[in-house]
Sequence to fold (406 residues):
Amino acid sequence: MHKPAITQTPIDTTLSNRWSGRAYDAAKGVTHAQVITLLEAARWAPSCFGDQPWRFVVWNKGSDATTWQQAFDCLVPGNQAWVKDAPLLLLICADTLFGHNQQANRWAQYDTGAAAENLCLQASSMGLMAHQMGGFDANKARSEFKIPEQYTLMAMVAVGYPADIATLEGETLARETAERVRKPLSELFFEATWGKSVKGLNE
Amino acid sequence: MHKPAITQTPIDTTLSNRWSGRAYDAAKGVTHAQVITLLEAARWAPSCFGDQPWRFVVWNKGSDATTWQQAFDCLVPGNQAWVKDAPLLLLICADTLFGHNQQANRWAQYDTGAAAENLCLQASSMGLMAHQMGGFDANKARSEFKIPEQYTLMAMVAVGYPADIATLEGETLARETAERVRKPLSELFFEATWGKSVKGLNE
Fold:
């Protein structure tokens, strides 16, 4: 489904086309080559001192349904309800310590968010859809997958092909076709000092 | 300067073309319309509960050189050395509390990193170059620009047109033309469980 962001000025289509839908096509898998491409995109995000603090764990239902299920079982029920048809799951972690000196990296989560966004943008660019989730049991995932304490578990991501809109109905259809919304520019962005709103072109 | 990421499989060019150079063209400014486009791109990043925890302050040397200088003065000397020719500066902050319930938002920095990455990608897509910096005096910036305690100061960003490579020499030229590097896929990304490296296509 094509559901671009509604912007005052045109933005790059890789950015405007990305969105977090929930209706996946259970019949279409994701290949290992596609997984590599998604990870390559994440790999080239910028980071403080070039530390690349992001670490991802990937589960592909097509190649290993058992571990995919283990990952799926870490999601909260509200997410499981729609993630069930997504063939690829990822867990996004942030390394809390810099590699070069083992000191605290205060940009670890910030930089990891950029890498995850790159992955989502790449997915969208390939005709896939990626949806990040904070709703998962981080303690359970840490324990199941033996993730060291040094890494903070930030998000899980569902990836797959979007379902054909013609196959959807009721609330699922309404949710997938609802207009995308954001706060106005003037609430988020300031000019020269805090609280002085940037004036948009249409304001 | 065109300096795309070297990837095993082709990735979206909006992602591969973004890079953090340091040589800006002091003669070329950034218009307000371009600023709006950069902010629009940031605005459409995804966030937990759709909270959009990012807040940016923007300084455009072309329209207000005095406040641009105030922002510039918050950078560490090592960054000032090359940021001096960049016409646009931004400060990226993360709202530590969710808007809907004023509880701690553990994804504030992570989501803010995604919005900042969108801005950098949009810049690159417009022929501009954006370079994020952790090297600035956050206490000074908070005090100068009256940023409430609720917001964490994450990064400053320099934006402008890249300088013509033919005008560069010595270390500046070497730095701008050096090969871009990243850790191998196998160090950053795991399959099914922690520490089991994803196999790349070429490995």
Observations:
- Chain B touches chain A through 80 residues (CB under 8 Å).
